[in-house]
Each structure stands twice: as C-alpha cells, then as structure tokens.
Amino acid sequence: MRDALVLGIGNVLWGDEGFGVRCVEAFGAAYDLPPGAGWMDGGTQGLYLLPYVQDARRLLIFDAIDFGLAPGTLRVLEGADVPCYLGARKTSLHQTGFQEVLACAALTEQMPEALVLVGVQPEDMFDYGGSLRPVVSAQIPRALELAVERLTAWGVVPVRREAPAASRSPISRERYETGRPSAAAACRIGDARFLPHAD
Hints:
Layout: E1 4-9, H1 19-30, E2 31-32, E3 37-43, H2 50-54, E4 58-64, E5 74-78, H3 81-85, H4 93-107, E6 114-120, H5 134-137, H6 140-153, E7 159-160, H7 173-178
Parallel strand pairs: 1-3, 1-4, 4-6
Antiparallel strand pairs: 2-7, 5-6
Helix pairs in contact: 1-6
C-alpha cells in the first residue's frame, strides 16, 4: 500500500477543467517524493482509478470545482467534505466518475485514511481546446504549496528538485500551449490539430 498518492484529475481540452492535471504535472516536475509515495495524472479515467485510490493510505487531489466563488479562489477540503463537492454543479463526466470511485472505495472498506482536495474555482470550463485562464493558472504555485504543507504534515516530505524535470508527455502544458493556434484562428468546434483534414 502506498503511504500517499497525489492525484490530479480533469480534462486539459476544456479550459480551466485541466487545472488538476496541470497542478500534478507541475508538482511532479518540481518535487521528488520519498519511497512509498507517488503522483499521478488521473485525467478523466473515472472508475479506472479505483485500485489506485484503494491502494493509498492518504490521498491528495487537485481539481477544478465550481464552488460558486470568485474565479481563482482556492479551497482545501478534507475527509467527508470531499465527496460532497466532487461533481457539484459540473458537466464533466470524469467528476461523476470520481465520486463513484470514492463511493466504491468506501463500499469495499478500502478508503484512504486521509483525504484532501485542493480545489480551484474555475472561470471557464466550456472553452474546448482552450487554456487555463490567467486567474486560474496563477493559483498553481499556491496549490502546490498547500499540497507540500499537507504532505509534510503527513510525514511524506517532498524534496524540491534542483532543476525541474522535463516532461515527455505529448500533452504536457508546454507542448500543448506552444502548439495552439491563435484565438482568431482557433477552431471553435474543437482543437483543429486533432480533427481530420481533407488532403
């Protein structure tokens, strides 16, 4: 069983919905974790995440949640408060799936002993192919600080890398952002880079 798992969930194709994924990506680039702890981009995997949740003694989640607050507001929720908020007032399928993950973990009596959500209030989650809004993106460093504080309190102390680790992911933030067309040229029915083209 893992001592701790840092999990980012969300969909990078829908604007601020990608906050959790971008947080865990930045966390993994900036920090090493001690043996027995790890981090994971959970994306939109829903119930496929169940075995990872069941295997974690402590679980810290990054996500964008509509709390009904000012865009960019960060909130930290713990324990039973987390399932109440995941999926609240959202249309993304992965959120409903993650609520079900937590419900299944509880049903099988394999819930993490400690559960924490670092959530941000999104500004726009309906911009297909869009980026994190500046007010949301600006909260990533603080979200990471909150995660480090909590992990340290758990005795799972992250160690900052001397230099950020390079990402090999084809959807890393750097690759995704630098390859995006300008707002004027963007395709509003999707990301034109992933649509079929007639030769």
